[in-house]
Known about the structure:
It contains 5 helices and no strands. By secondary structure, the protein is mainly α. The chain is elongated, with a radius of gyration of 15 Å. The chain has helices at 7-33, 35-40, 47-62, 67-87, 93-109.
Amino acid sequence: MSTExxxxxxxxxxxxxxxLTALFLFSASSKLLHPEQMAQMxxxxxxxxxxxxxxxxxxLFLVPKTNKLGIVLLSSYLGGAIIIHMTGGLPITMPAVxxxxxxxxxxxxNPEFIKL
Length: 116
């Protein structure tokens, strides 16, 4: 069963996808270039693996054929970020908002994905 996506929804989804991709790529590069931020969260030893996972996840999210897998991986990544923020006493607002944007974009790009 194919669901028709309006042109406005497609454009909106691609704009948000582009912004999220830029955000995640910036975040991954920050992990590599500024290890002190990861050290504060006691994740310095994992920063390269986390950055690689972030880049792979966002690239899968960006490509239409692998978008659904990217949504799942980014949701998992952001869930982990929320937990790290909670245990570190940091506000969870930013990762929660980004997670919601990932879900909104996923729903716009794949309406059948959210139907149960």
